[in-house]
Amino acid sequence: MAGDNDKEGMVLRTVYLPEAMDAELRELAHRHRRSKNQLVRAALANRIIVWRKPNTAEKIEADEQLALQFS
């Protein structure tokens, strides 16, 4: 998991995840030999790009609804 422990230029954020979402994230990380941190950063980077485009409020609302499926 190269680069995962390189904290230079990083800011620590604490995020609470539903247990089901964390379990899925753990499985994906294991399957793809990545850390959960790497996957979270990649997913967040992807969504930030999407949210920069038009209709941001609607996209964020849709993503919030998707997140509720893990609760």
Give a quick set of tags describing it.
single chain; 71 residues; mainly alpha; 3 helices; 59% helix; 0% strand; globular
Could you characterize the architecture of this molecule?
By secondary structure, the chain is mainly α. It has one domain. Helix content is 59%, strand content 0%. Helix 1 crosses helix 2. The longest helix has 16 residues. It is globular, with a radius of gyration of 14 Å. The model has no long low-confidence stretch (mean pLDDT 92).
Q: Please, how many helices?
A: 3
Instruction: Kindly report the average pLDDT value.
Output: 92
What is the strand tally? 0
> How far is it from the N-terminal to the C-terminal residue, by CA?
29 Å
- Report the biggest beta sheet as strand number plus sense, adding barrel if it closes: none
Gross morphology is: globular
Taken as a percent bin, the fraction of beta residues is under 5%
Secondary-structure element order, N to C: HHH
